[in-house]
Structures
1.
Amino acid sequence: MLTTKRLDVPLTIKSVNEKGEFEGYGSIFGNKDSYDDIVVAGAFKASLDRWQEKGRLPALLWQHNMQEPIGVYTEMREDDVGLYVKGQLLIDDDPLAKRAHAHMKAGSLSGMSIGYVLNDWEYDREKEAWLLKEIDLWEVSLVTFPANDEARISNVKSALDRGEMPRPSDVERALREVGFSKAQAQAFMAKGYGAIAPRDAEQATALQSLKSLLTRI
């Protein structure tokens, strides 16, 4: 069974009107995020082509909740900037959509997140980043925060539950989600537990975070 992942990005709204119509970008190409991911131009093309063949578009959800669609996307395509989306919130029929609309207008809704399966990727040592080359897009959610802590840890747990080895990038991200610095997480991945012995208060805190992570997994 395929497990969906999440990619959290800043919500770039070009416009939102009183009818609940909005447009913006759900992903920007070539931008290295805080988790060292770079979405490559063309990453969504194959998936969008498949959606077009079905005559539908990915779902517009609230907070990745499959039980809470809040509207529909009327257009979704790649351009020179990234993944352009245009949607319609059902503000006349859904109180949650009306609430989301109010927050979008006020600027208090700060993120957009995509649910997807990653079909093709590679690590670029020169850029020190994972290049996401083909993304099978399932849904695009409006989210309160552009970073979802549990998503990274869940990726690691899901892989372990299936008897698979989680991607190194997911393990490193999970470590960083619970308090490790980027350098500490990378040292742990490269050299193991001994690389972060508690020689100072900062590293002791990191080790406590590791215990928390292991408990949650």
Note: The mean pLDDT is 78.
2.
Amino acid sequence: MKLTLNIWRQAESESTGAIKTYQIDNVSPEMSFLEMLDQLNEDLTAKGEEPVAFDSDCREGICGMCGLVINGTAHGRGMSPVRTTTCQLHMRWFHDGDTITIEPWKAGAFPVIKDLIVDRGALDRIMQAGGFISVNTGAAPDAHAAPISKFKADRAFDAATCIGCGACVAACPNGSAMLFTSAKISHLANLPQGQPERKLRVKNMIGQHDAELLGHCTNIGECAAVCPKGISLDSITQLNRDLIASLFSGVGMKQH
């Protein structure tokens, strides 16, 4: 296939970025999207031009590092018939002669580092504020023996599949990370081990979310639509319930 690529180029966070157009030929339908970008970078390097900087790690849809906005949609959602990360999006879903626009995550809380790479440290700091269990939960056999209903176990597992890629933030018109934050809160809120710090956890994590200048949720639903792991909006409902309960509990915020 021969493709036209419109790619966001930005030398550094303080510089002005712009879309630059490239032509690429001999793209195999069996390539992943990132392999196609690898080929482009090989061509650019051979010409003595600066390759396009983009993030990737596992390339197996596990780590979430590869997030890109493709033709206006996070991870190219809708081009593949299944939910997928950018690294698992394959070129067979495109056609010869297509024009593809590739941009970094668009969010004020995710400043561009270079080209398609953004700083997603805001999500790390939300996790550091309370996305963990610090109380002693005993050894593995003790945890396994703790009674928990299948419904709660399933909800905890579903929320735990969040890979923290940030697609929800990039897709949200408000730049909110509520789907990410609620997934981390719901995961622990449905487990017995998460109960002792449950109210403090939601206060701290929401406080950090707001401190990062991430937007508020207005239930538009774009976050869930592009989430490669299918995190449900139900997790935001869980977050709101826990937040309301914590506000009336008298539990204060604590810096960890």
Note: Residues 2 and 25 are 4 Å apart (CA to CA).
3.
Amino acid sequence: MTQDLSPLTRIPRTGLPASALVVGDPARAEAVARLLDDAEEVSHHREYRLFTGSWRGLRVTVASHGVGGPGAILLFRELAEAGVRTIVRLGTAGSIRPGIADGDLVIAEGAVRDDGVTGQLLPPEYPALCAPEAVLALQRAAREAGAPHHRGIVWTRAAFQPGLIPVTAYGEAGVAAIEMELSALLVTASLRGLTAGGVLVADGANADDLVDEEATGGYDPHRQVVADGVRRGSAVALEALRLLAEDGR
């Protein structure tokens, strides 16, 4: 019998585990899946690659959503339609707030909605907030893992390359880091009644790089310190999903 697949991402329409970890890179989804027991690749279409498996007894979905909010939001919606109720995003981010070292984790409390897509779904005044339970679960998991971590608001921005709009003001307001998809997840979660959160790995970019295009040309996220942070972040995100499931999320 042919499996019933969703129309856009080609993931199964039904039957997915209720807890999901999402990442941008399909290769990272595979790396996270290697941490699971009984991991199985379920589907792979374009940037959307999906695995299922178990983390410490909890059945989980691991899926990739590609780069940018417009494509990512397609996955988030179809995950919800397939039975997912809790989603944690694991990604990389440029640090903005001083004191965040390369490889450190940033546990998001909410996001600036500069994602290029959610403004077409809801007025810009509507907030993009992480579920408090997700923030606390991620913080607890990071502490128990001994992973260096910080909490704060992150800036989800559609443009990766620097432009003419100054970016330092958000740093002066205490924003911790900049990335490209979290606010799309958080708005989707609010509209769908999901529990959602995010943990990001500082990958070496900073506010000065974002202002100085020449400096950004030297940006290199493929260093060991970042890879080590991603491994820690993967385990932290999976453990947070388990803690949330224990709490009925």
Note: The two ends are 32 Å apart (CA to CA).
4.
Amino acid sequence: MTTNEPRAVAAHDRLQTHRYVMRYPEHAPRADDPHYRAFEAYRRHHRAGAVCYVGERAGREQCAGALELHHSVLEFAVANAADPKALHKDFPEVGEDATPDDIADWLASTPGAFLWLCAFHHRGHGGAHTASHADWTAQLYVPGLIT
């Protein structure tokens, strides 16, 4: 006797590879950028008591390495190419006619533009800069998803 009910898929591991080209606009070295001081001041001021955003949700035992501050909205290296009208749709405080300097100021000083992440969840293979967005977000709620 057969049934048309779908069978459960057994738990399994699957190697993921993502490869594409990022076209970064010309930008100053981060340490030479005048907005870097504001970013560093924010980092120093908010470091006390900070925990990894992912570890806080799915378990700190998954975290590895020191805490780092991540630009969660827009990478600083691409800020000068951001369309202010597009940013304004999600972040009304960024004016539709904002200049690249206005956007950089906003990125360097806006609390909602940052996430504290451990090195693994920032730059490691389970990191915001490495894993696909869908996978990175899923690991917030599925402990051990990316190993």
Note: The chain has one domain: 30-115+122-138.
